[in-house]
Design goal:
Elements: E1 5-11, H1 15-23, H2 25-28, E2 38-44, E3 51-57, E4 64-74, E5 78-86, E6 105-114, E7 117-126, H3 131-139, H4 141-159
Antiparallel strand pairs: 1-7, 2-3, 3-4, 4-5, 5-6, 6-7
Protein name: SRPBCC domain-containing protein
Domain Activator of Hsp90 ATPase homologue 1/2-like C-terminal: 12-160
Family: Belongs to the AHA1 family.
Amino acid sequence: MSTQIEITYTFNAPRELVFKAFTESQHLRNWWGPKGWAFHVAKADFRPGGVFHYSQKPSDGDIMWVKFVYSEIVALEKIVYTSFFSDEEGNVVRAPFDANWPLETLNTMTFTEDKGKTTLTTIIVPVSPTEEENKTFYSSSEIVQNGFTGTFDQLAEYLKI
């Protein structure tokens, strides 16, 4: 059983532009998260050790808080961060949709450019999961893939502007 999820997506845009869309909150707020959800950036500090803390809310549901803590950033090439659901203060909480979702995931994004197009490879791995969390993560891989692909579709649309 593989405990990583890999998502590859190619944007019809140069790497510098795609990277900027991931690293500047004025861009992120226009495309990140599920389509049609309200999105609010509470904190955006893009540097190793920095935090991206935001909330998202479906029109028919409760607000969810998420926090990223960046561990490695290589300009135009790579972003590594841990991600977890949080409360409004940024404390780790269980995922609102599944109590067995891993408390924390490690996300590695690499950006490569070829002929003006950028391929983003995202690898998501649970951090110190229990056996049950690992099973939940593994069985949710299609949902995670679809979620990220939907979000990246929104970015592709945003980059056309």
